[in-house]
Amino acid sequence: MRILQIRKTDWAAGLEKSRKDHSLIGPVRERNNTSKFRELEVGEEPDFSITTTTMSPKSVVFPQSEVMFTYTTDKASPECNIMKVPKNDYSPRAIIGIRPFDAAAMNIVKKNFDTPDYRDPYWCDAYEACTFIGLAVTNPDSCDFSTSTNSGPFSTAGLDVLLVDTGDSFLAEVVTEKGASWMRSAGFDTKADHDAEETIATMRKEAEKKITSTVEFDNIDKKETLDLYNENFWESISFPCLNCGTCTYVCPTCWCFDIQDETAHKKGRRMKNWDSCMFPNFTIHTTGHNPRNTKLMRVRQRFMHKLKYHQSKYNQGIMCVGCGRCVTSCPVNIDIREVCKQMNS
Amino acid sequence: MINPYLPFPIRIEDIIVESEDRSLKTFKFVFLNPEDEEKFSYKAGQFAEISIPGQGEIPIGIASSPVEKGFIAFTVNRAGKVTSHLHNMKVGDVLGVRGPLGNPYPWDTMKGKNLLFIGGGFAFTTLRSSVVYLLHPDNRDKYGTIDVVYGSRSPGMLLYLDELQKWEARDDINMHITVDGTDDPNWKYNVGFVPPIAEEKAPKSAGDTYAIVCGPPIMIKFTLPVLEKLGYDHDHIILSLENRMKCGIGMCGRCGIGEQLVCKDGPVFTLAEVNNTPKEF
Amino acid sequence: MQSYSEKIKEIAIRLLKDETVEVVFGFREGTLPMASPPFAAKTVEDAEQLTWTSHCCINLANYLMDHKGKVAIFAKGCDCRSIVNHIGEGKVKREDLHIIGVPCKGMVERHTICTLFDDEIDEAVEEDDGTILVRGNGREEKYQKADVMRQCCKVCVHRNPGIYDELAAELVTIPDDIKRYREVEEVEELGVDERWNFFENLVSTCIRCYACRDACPTCYCPTCFVDEAQPQWVGKGDEEPDIMTFHILRAFHTAGRCTDCGACVSSCPMGINMRAFTKKLEKDCLDLWDWESGLTSDVRPALETYQPGDPEDNFK
Q1: A84-100: per-residue pLDDT in tens?
Q2: Which of A61, A82, A271 would best serve as a mutation to test chain B binding (most B beta carbons within 10 A)?
Q3: How many structural domains compose chain A?
Q4: Do A236 and A113 reside in the same domain of the chain?
Q5: What is the structure's pLDDT at B1?
Q6: What is the ipTM of this complex?
Q7: Looking at the structure, do residues A233 and A305 belong to the same domain, yes or no?
Q8: Alpha carbons C140 and B229: distance in angstroms, whole number
């Protein structure tokens, strides 16, 4: 394991230095005590005091709205009705301070957008342009259950570098060559003390101990899909649900999207927009028939997808990284941990 | 690498009104770039996304057959935003197509077996593609008997009437055309709903026949018990499902039934598979 | 609110035992401090879980429309006014409802306390003296409920239920010095550009999850205008004009029907005060037509009717 040390007094200068070949994206506070990841302006530092941003960093590679193509519907044009691929910027960018659970989510979402049969170029190109400079979680939120989902506070899955805040400095565990390259670009090259690995291990244990919230899902995998589907508990679980899209929009692993054309004065663009299985429109047929026409069915779909279907399909755990965002953001406190417990029992 | 969302540009070459109420039209398209036809190499049972800038995209089964070269064809029911717009387009207009998408009927598995096609209404498109494929001299010997039960509301609503009549005259395919009702005294085929006609006319299966069923939900509902009665196992009954779709390539998530995505893992499923998954279609 | 909770359980158990109703809509304890999610109690055991806290921000009238059969509902003043509207608009039948009015002492959003405390919260205890004691991460803070309660509750003059079959507590006295529209006046006093900036900033964090719409008892259109495809009135992306169109149009659709229950604001994961739109329209309805929503089912709301003598100040 290669570990470097970054003194905090050198941090800001290093970040700025790395801008010569990377744009920087990081967590920032917004209005109303909310927070998200966005491009940092020159001189602006990522806000490491936020453990769990309100919105996950999935938007870095999967924006809420994105132009897929442009077109003209002007019949006088030889290009009429022919889709054009926009020139998107996929120059290198470093995501500074992404938390391990969110980086783990990238790996999960990658399974959907980068498959043996098809490759979503928008997601994949953006993803490949990213260097993920993670920040270990030393003060987990109470709704964090990431130790149960293999995406614990010091997990390096999906990361290129893992930063560990030790007070005056960061210990930087360099995970990939991409990460090493960003470190060089920032001029961070001081080797850490020989006991750094031990320090990280100790801090990791401490952080993991602080996470008391857990879920179990082994039995869900063993149960028959239709047995779970037909359980009675879906009625009480779904009762309070408003059918808003909050849980799916704050979730770092929810990847569903819509494709929409927007035209004005014969010029248009085909958009890829976030969508949500919570919305009735998600599944409604042109005939008006809706195969998931009740709130119960939609709530069930979300949890079955995350906790059952994904597990059976990929055999690599559940489609959840334990960040706790849906738990804290849900206006009616539908708690995935409780649902998981009921499904697993 | 190719962008799977980018449609191939196509031009409308011909439009055939298929039904007396003009709600069904067959569109023949040619590719603007001839090399795209190669890329759009398909098998019967697959579908494509017809893409009209400003209107959106719509998944439709491919009605032309892999043995027909130089064009692709789709029979489109005027229903929503995209299909209504398409119905108003003219020969020569340009639009796009993405595909082929999804899985075809299991042609390799079905080799050497007898085939029974049951279709209702305008869901006969991929069955037409299949029959044309099977009747091609290169393919006919590879399969056993072929029976087709096809019905619609009235004679004027039957698709591909000329072809149906030609097939009717052949001795290597057994046609069982029916309509729900008609006041045409010269109607020489069956009158009755598809399920009872199937019960009366379709061959029994002793594990040697595959049934491919496409039609409105109500027809499928009453046809399945008939097939069971005729001895068809659930893994010998093949359905083509429909769900709302956008991407068509298994990414946007909306067409899921359990862990399967209708667009990518289907749309062709055996009844045995469907029985094991939530009926969310 | 301990006394409220005891009484609420007692009433719910009675109504279920004597089969007055099949189900009771109320709130129960959530999995987080200060979370009180809506709950449908169908059995006596269920009813034991019912509670009443200062965090029952959701408007339960929203749940009535999906329900068939006889139902009891615990309803704050604002919830009752929404029920009155639903009866007037033919969405529910009075005879299917057993309304247990809950005189309201104001509600506090979890979000507000979380922001103020700015630390992990382990526990929040409501004391009888009108304070909320919050503990977490080795710290303790005490908040006056009157200071931290929702803005809609602070300016509410309809805290007592207006329609009910029984009451869960004694009626509360309403202060007579409430400045109902101070927040609206502050915006009205702004110049045109400042006002536009105010509204732009207001919705700048919106993610279009539609929690506001979905929590709103007034928003029950089978297909909301933002979801229409033919014609498509508004783009579905995250661009400001589309977001603004959604909020402004939604507000106008609720004009004269909104009861300022605040469920929209309380449900918003992004902390948006969309009441800035709806409260202004409430004020206009009062000023122009002397109309207040949810006080009677017998008269059609202000914007649903037209009289030749109607003021024209609203149309300019």
Answers
A1: 999 999 999 999 999 99
A2: A82
A3: 2
A4: no
A5: 64
A6: 0.94
A7: yes
A8: 73
Percent of chain C with pLDDT over 70: 98
Which residue in the set A143, A242, A262 is minimally distant from C267, CB to CB? A242
Alpha-helical segments (H) within chain A? 8-18, 100-113, 121-128, 177-186, 196-210, 218-222, 225-229, 233-238, 246-250, 295-304, 310-314, 325-329, 336-344
- Strand (E) or helix (H) holding A130: strand A130-135
Count the Cβ atoms, other than its own, within 10 Å of residue C37.
22
Listed residues A210, A241, A259: the one ending a domain: A210
- Residues spanned by the domain of A21: 2-210
Q: Of the candidates B244, B250, B256, which has its C-beta nearest A285's C-beta?
A: B244
Query: A132 and A236 in one domain?
Result: no
pLDDT in tens, B110-123: 999 999 999 998 99
What mean pLDDT comes out for the span C75-85?
96
- C204 interfacial to chain A (CB closer than 8 Å): yes
Identify the structural domains of chain B with CATH numbers, from first to last.
8-100 (2.40.30.10), 114-240 (3.40.50.80)
Q: Which of A194, A210, A226 is the last residue of a domain?
A: A210
**Scanning every residue of chain B, which has its alpha carbon at the shortest distance from the alpha carbon of A224?**
B276
Which residue of chain A comes nearest to C226, CA vs CA?
A281
Q: Indicate the residue of B4, B79, B278 with minimum beta-carbon distance to A229.
A: B278
Q: How many residues does chain B have?
A: 281
The Cβ-side half-sphere exposure at B147, using a 13 Å CA radius, reads 19
Mark whether A76 and A161 lie in a shared domain: yes
Query: Which whole number is the average pLDDT over A115-144?
Result: 96
Residues of B with CB under 8 A from a CB of C: 80-81
Q: Quick check: B54 contacting A, CB < 8 Å?
A: yes
The pTM of the full predicted model, rounded to 2 decimals, is: 0.94
Here the tokens at position A37 are 């990841």
Q: Which residues of chain A make contact with C119, given a CB cutoff of 8 A?
A: none
Whether the pLDDT of residue C316 is over 60: the answer is no
